[in-house]
Amino acid sequence: MTHHILKIESTHWSAKALGVKLFETRKDDRNFQVGDTVQYIVLDSSYKRPRSAVYEIIYVLKEYQLDGYVTFAERLIDA
């Protein structure tokens, strides 16, 4: 299992922080796997909510994506 640190724009972070956006589509350059953890770092320094959180990847979809991209579902494990 791998721990990934990813940057995220504050507009996308707000939906994730509210628990509405439970998936992520990213370039498939890190070999994301079920069980990996992802820590998001918010790029906008003026954002008022917690600026970092850790999620566990619970599902990976590589089919039906643009070539070279992956979508994964995740659950919050540490805010």
Characterization of this structure:
The protein is built from one helix and five strands. It has a five-stranded mixed beta sheet. A hairpin with a 7-residue loop joins strand 4 and strand 5. With 79 residues, the protein is mostly beta strands. The longest helix is centred in the N-terminal third of the chain and has 8 residues, at 10-17. 10% of the residues lie in helices and 47% in strands.
Shape: globular
H-E order: EHEEEE
**Structural classification:** mainly beta
Strand content: over 45%
Q: Radius of gyration, Cα only, in angstroms? A: 12 Å
- The share of residues in helices is 10-25%
Question: Stretches where pLDDT falls below 50 for ≥5 residues?
Answer: none
Number of strands: 5
The spatial strand order of the largest sheet comes to 1-3-4-5-2
Distance between the termini: 20 Å
Largest sheet: 5 strands, mixed
**Count of runs of 4 or more consecutive helical residues:** 1
> On the 0-100 scale, what is the average pLDDT?
88
Helix and strand topology:
Layout: E1 3-8, H1 10-17, E2 23-27, E3 37-42, E4 52-61, E5 69-78
Parallel strand pairs: 1-3
Antiparallel strand pairs: 2-5, 3-4, 4-5
